[in-house]
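Researcher: Excuse me, tokens okay?
***
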Amino acid sequence: MPTYRDEAVVLRTHKLGEADRIVTMIGRRHGKIRAVAKGVRRTGSRFGARLEPFMVVDAQFYVGRTLDIVQQVDSAGSYGADIAADYARYTVAHAMVEAADRLTEHEAGTPHYLLLVGALRSLARAEHPAGLTRDSYLLRALSIAGWAPSFVDCAVTGAAGPHSAFVPQLGGVVADAVAPPGAVRLDAATLSLLGALLAGDWEAAEDSDERTRDQASGVTAAYAQFHLERGLRSLELQDRETA
């Protein structure tokens, strides 16, 4: 019987039939995993609660024709309950797993897995403000996918910065000589925060004010939307709630 074992983080689930679920995960070694968890919606399920979004598991799978089958599940990181207990963290977590699902549609690996697990763990423990955790995750996940933004030197010419014109389509900040008309202009504080979020410099990121965080969030969302080719539904819901 062809089987494999992997650590994985649960991204989303869908109902299947009366008692089963299709679970979508990112595995540490096997990348994107879509598997059927049989009977998990029954009251007496042995591992139904472990296969919820934001949970990290050590699982064994049977290789199926179209979808794999979950055979065994052990908890490796129970972050779901702590995240769900706070609405801001809950919506942020949804934005992160939605982005992870999109970014790993064709290729996933250990760096994506480790980044997402670290972000969910930090979010569950409330180590940093939820919005900063989300924006740092998005910028770093896009970088892993090959779309690292530039917040200092010109993304087009390489000319040394700082530069203030930000153009998502061109890869970040650009020199005035190549900036298109109407390009968004960012102040030094916002660029500094974006750089800190990309680098994981939490001391500098948490030293920012609310206005700067809001502007950095808008820039991050625009950059993510361009490279993911459509907006993140979870981010759009958060925008409506804070409007």
